[in-house]
Amino acid sequence: MENWKKQAINLLMGMTLEEKADPSVCAYTPSKTQLSAVEEHGRRTASPERHGVSSRRLCQLLEALEAEERANVRTVYAVKDGHVLLDASRPGFDSHTFYLSHSMAKSVTGMLIGTLVDEGALSLSDTVASFFPEYTYKDRRFASMTVEHLLIMSSGVPFAEVGVVTEVDWGRAFFSSTLSFAPGKEFMYNSMNSYILGRIAEKVSGKDLFSLAKERLFEPLGIDNAFWERDAQGHAKGGFGLYLSAASWAKLGSLYVSGGVYNGRRLLSESWIEQSSAAHMQTPASLGDFDYGYHVWVNRMGGEVLFNGMLGQNVWIRPSTGTVAVILSGNSELFQQSPALSLLRTYLFDLPEGERASLSERRRLRRKQKEFFKNRTPVTPKPPVRGLWAAVTGKGRHPFDAAWEPMLGTYCLQENNAALLPMFVRLMQNNYETDGIRTLTFLREDEELYMELLIGASTYRLPVGLYDYRTCTLSVGGESYIVRTRAQAVTDGEGACSYTIECVFPELPNTRIIQLYPSEQGRLRVVLRELPDQRLLESFRNSFLSPGAKGSMIFGLLQRYMGEGFLEEKATSVFEKSIMGGLASHPDTEAYLQELSVERTTRLNKYATIQGLIRRFVGSDDTPSESEDSPEQTQEKGGSWFDTVMSAFRFGRGRARRSTPDGAPTDIPVTDAPTDVSEVMPTEDVSDGPTAVPSDESISENKDQRI
User: Fold this and answer.
1) Angle at CA 212, nearest 5°, toward 208 and 215?
2) Contact 74, 65 (CB under 8 A)
């Protein structure tokens, strides 16, 4: 078994069965090292009716998105004929802050390859290995792998997303792999194909991928608020890690409407637009309604092009109507099954000529855009004090909420591996604070509420909005994030009060919800929830139902030894963690925490038996080394214990058919659907640690004061 697979098992067990605060299995390098700047709008806003779109239709779209429970939308942004028709964002987000768009980065990498092909610097038939003399490979089928095979996701390389958090040199691990099939034979979605394409673009152009993107695409399109994460070797990640705003994504999508031209300047050839938006690989139906072109998705019925990223990121393009719509989300979808995308297509696919709306409906649309998703937010802020009462009390419009007075003080928490950043983000970035959250403090300064978290040796201080979001910057292990917080206190029918703090990261699809339940003797239960939540695992459920002989044996032993709901409980605990603690000043708190520590030790000792069992079976699961496909390899690819377990943390394998030149597909079986995960994980700045700093000024100032 390859080293990255064994390391992946160690990573999973470190997160769950060992409950390590830092389960990382490879060296950490900060990736997200830049904050979003303030971005100019750059486009004209127009009445939808002037461009053949009814305000009523757009209003119905927004209402449908709010009503769909699974559509956890951040921003909807629609453009037609170069004019903005729709610009709606939920509270805490906007269309001009750059946003982690996951696998939509692949489409940009594909466009950059297109610019190099257009100028003759690169050919789709060039062999991949010829660009990398520094790497050796054992599987002789690498010699036939071409640039086109990478573009259509048919390289056959199994080193995939999970490997980027278990290996430092991704290129070496890529070429060290034993291929799952001959290049070009099957469709197998893999971000490492895009990463290698980015490396090829760097070698051909003599520029790093991000600089090339700025030169060929971003600067001509007027995009100056962008960031692309790099790997430990300093290369842009290619298949993920790209931050762009919804407005910027709309500009990129417009190239597929205009035939590659923007403001009279040609950025991509018509030939490349036509080639890349043709279906080259037929994908499993379980992935949605789109086949695969050159790093873009193409509707099977024609007429639609899609850039797609996991957790609900989409740029939907309808060239025949000149429409580009961007939807950025934080849902649990991995591909184009997103209900938000389905609703977008329902309302914008056909745009009848002459469709009209009344003046009141146009006003309603404007109001709806400003209030989009307000009824879906987990926290309802207090209304400001108005009128004579504010003048008489002298407290102004935003006095301190007396309901938070009982929470003021410092709480010591039991041992845990939790943090302020959602676990999903920490996993992707390899960014773990040590020792988990040790203390949680609430304090009042004038009329403001602040929350401090001691995580390891680092203190994070955040302002908490009681009336609206308060914004600050968060530095974690050399990585920087914008965070916005607001809170509410709720009293139940028996007079007990609970508290909720919402922490949104406007640059990320992920949100952290902190729920606080105080009780007698100064005790406190802290529940850390994150969105997307455990429903993300529903996409993998079918894989676990038929794990093969070894997997069935281990799963059966887990259920018998640990209890019927053990697997579900451990999966849920990744997304929703409950932590007990007590007021530091209370005399019983120290003894209470000691009791909890004993319980934790007993639990982890029990898990140790399971860890040994898993390592025993994984260690005996040898990967075939034949360089050609064999029946043994086919069986291994379809049902190995490792692939089954790891399918929840990496892209699965989607077999499909490649279209022949005459359009007739070749017969290739379809197996379990792929899954979209883009990973890389960060740690801590040892020098002076992470801090969160209030920022009452423009975010563009990015002031970062340390505690």
Assistant:
1) 145
2) no
CA distance 183 to 565: 41
Say if residues 177 and 140 touch (Cβ distance below 8 Å).
no
Distance CA 269, CA 435 (A): 53
From the number of C-beta atoms within 10 Å of its C-beta (0-12, 13-18, 19+), residue 535 rates as middle
Q: What is the DSSP letter of 216?
A: I
HEC assignment per residue over 105-160? HHHHHHHHHHHHHHCCCCCCCCECHHHCCCCCCCCHHHHHCEHHHHHCCCCCCCCC
Under DSSP, is residue 504 helix (H, G, I), strand (E, B) or coil?
strand
CA distance 119 to 96: 32
Q: What's the rounded Cα separation, in Å, for the pair 248 and 229?
A: 17
- Distances in Å between the Cα of 281 and the Cα atoms of 33, 160, 184, 188, 410 are 36, 19, 9, 10, 57
* Residue 311 three-state SS: coil
Q: Are 509 and 333 in contact (CB under 8 A)?
A: no
At 261, is the secondary structure helix, strand, or coil?
Answer: strand
* CA trace torsion 558, 561, 562, 565 (10° rounding): 70
Cis peptide before 532 (omega within 30 of 0): yes
Tokens of 368: 């709806």
**Positions of the chain with pLDDT under 70:** 1, 41-44, 354, 388-396, 537-559, 618-707
Residue 580 phi/psi, 5° resolution? Answer: -100, 150
User: End-to-end CA distance of the chain, in Å?
Assistant: 46
- Token pair in block for residue 182: 């001959």
Do the beta carbons of residue 218 and residue 236 sit within 8 Å?
no
42: left (phi over 0), alpha (psi -120 to 50) or beta: left
Strands 479-491 and 497-504: antiparallel
- The tokens of 382 are what? 């207090």
Name the packing angle between helices 191-205 and 105-118 (round to 10°): 40
Task: Tell me whether residue 410 is exposed, middle or buried, using C-beta atoms within 10 angstroms of its C-beta: 0 to 12, 13 to 18, 19 or more.
Answer: middle
Quick one: pLDDT at residue 702? 35
Phi, psi (rounded to 5 degrees) for 446: 55, -120
CA separation for the pair 232, 213 (Å, rounded)? 20
Angle between helices 589-619 and 3-15 (to 10 degrees): 150
The pLDDT assigned to 234 comes to: 96
Q: Is the dihedral of CA 109, 114, 115, 120 positive or negative?
A: positive
DSSP per position, 262-295: ETTEESS-HHHHHHHTS--EE--GGG-SEEE-SS
H or E element in which residue 641 lies: helix 641-646
pLDDT value of residue 465: 97
Q: Which of 157, 195, 185, 186 has the alpha carbon at shortest distance from 4?
A: 157
For 219, residues 6+ apart whose C-beta sits below 8 A from its C-beta are none
pLDDT at res. 389: 60
Listed residue (511, 432, 418) closest to 477, CA to CA: 432
**Dihedral pair phi/psi, residue 230, rounded to 5°:** -120, 160
Q: What's residue 697's pLDDT? A: 38
Report CA Rg, the chain: 26
Calculate helix-pair angle for 339-348, 55-67, nearest 10 degrees: 160
What is the 8-class DSSP label of residue 165? Answer: G
8-state DSSP, 450: E
Degrees (nearest 5) of the Cα angle 47, 49, 52? Answer: 130
Q: Which amino acid is at 517?
A: Y
